[in-house]
Design brief:
By secondary structure, the chain is mainly α. It has a domain of 87 residues. It is 56% helix and 3% strand. The chain is built from seven helices and two strands; from the N terminus they run αααααββαα. Strands 1-2 form a two-stranded antiparallel ribbon. Helix 3 crosses helix 5 and helix 4 crosses helix 6. The radius of gyration is 22 Å and the shape is elongated. The model has no long low-confidence stretch (mean pLDDT 81).
């Protein structure tokens, strides 16, 4: 069994890891398949994120405060998962005219509608579809003991 070959006792002297190990480890880690955020300054994703970030910073509106968990979920989805269709991203982005004017009342109404359509925990369902099990990388450097 492989575990028997890599097990050591707490008092076992450590061995310096080769620099090549970390380069290869980082290469494996970067092989993640998260969707990239487009770099275009006018992308729907960036506009939607701007609206979401603006609304998350608002502190004096009770109705908006109640929607903040949903806003954080939308933000996480855009940044890490990319499951929202263009239509939904456009709906969020259109809550603003170049981020300068956001009608909070209209934004709240649209976000409530969107929350009902998607469901409060929609991202949890998407995560289970995309990532049924959390990935753990176990890396071992094979070297001959001297």
């Amino acid at each position: 069994m492989i575990l028997d070959k890599i097990t050591c006792r707490p008092e076992t002297e450590s061995i310096r890891i080769d620099e090549n190990f970390w380069r290869l480890y980082e290469k494996i880690k970067q092989n993640d398949e998260k969707p990239p955020i487009p770099t275009s300054p006018i992308s729907m994703e960036k506009n939607a994120l701007g609206v979401i970030d603006f609304l998350l910073r608002q502190k004096e509106n009770h109705d908006l405060t109640l929607l903040k968990p949903f806003l954080r979920t939308l933000r996480e989805d855009i940044l890490d998962y990319g499951t929202l269709p263009d239509y939904t991203l456009r709906r969020i982005a259109n809550l603003s005219n170049n981020h300068s004017m956001i009608n909070t009342g209209e934004a709240i109404a649209e976000l409530r509608t969107l929350e009902k359509e998607l469901g409060l925990n929609y991202l949890d369902r998407e995560k289970k579809k995309q990532y049924p099990d959390k990935e753990i990388i176990i890396a071992i450097e094979n070297r001959k003991m001297q």
